[in-house]
Amino acid sequence: MHRAEVAKRNVVRDTIRVEAPTDQQAKARGANWLLIFLIGRHPVRTLIRAGLLAAFCIVIFRHALLPVVVSGDSMYPAYRNGQLGFANGLAYARAEPQRGDVVVIEMTGRSAMYLKRVLALPGDEVRFSNGALLVNGQVVNEPYIEVNGTWTTASETLGPHDYFVAGDNRSGPWQWHAMGVVDRDQIAGRILF
What we know:
Blueprint: H1 3-14, H2 23-39, H3 43-64, E1 65-69, E2 84-88, E3 102-106, E4 113-120, E5 125-129, E6 132-135, E7 138-139, E8 156-157, E9 162-166, E10 180-183, E11 187-191
Antiparallel strand pairs: 1-2, 2-11, 3-4, 3-11, 4-9, 5-6, 5-8, 6-7, 9-10
């Protein structure tokens, strides 16, 4: 026998035969792939990871990043009715609210909160005169106001833990608006966007 014939026979003998999988084998492989995709190769590890992720999300969305849906036009034009935003619940853990901050105020727990702007700080004297905001007798420039309105209120001196808040939309009479003095403990956070 020639060398070429012997080499040809060896190649034929060493060839692996590949058969197409049966329908049952294909279904089993598909089901296994789906299970591996959904719960992983190690279900206990996957369950622990899912539990940790759920706990992390609960902590973040209850304390640090508060989802806010704007309802109403009190903060127009900065924030529109139906707009979704988030508030930083930890913003005032080590700092106090500042004049001009847009804050989330708890009225009856976290289910009903107001979105307002801080206009005056503890110890300030605040009032409105023909739509102009006066803090400690000085007119405050408010570039975020589109329509100034005609609000006129009595002068009020804030206590050591009090903040004066109001919305940016001041087109209607002040009696129609939820505004005024809030305690520091009611301020849940500062709006991010």
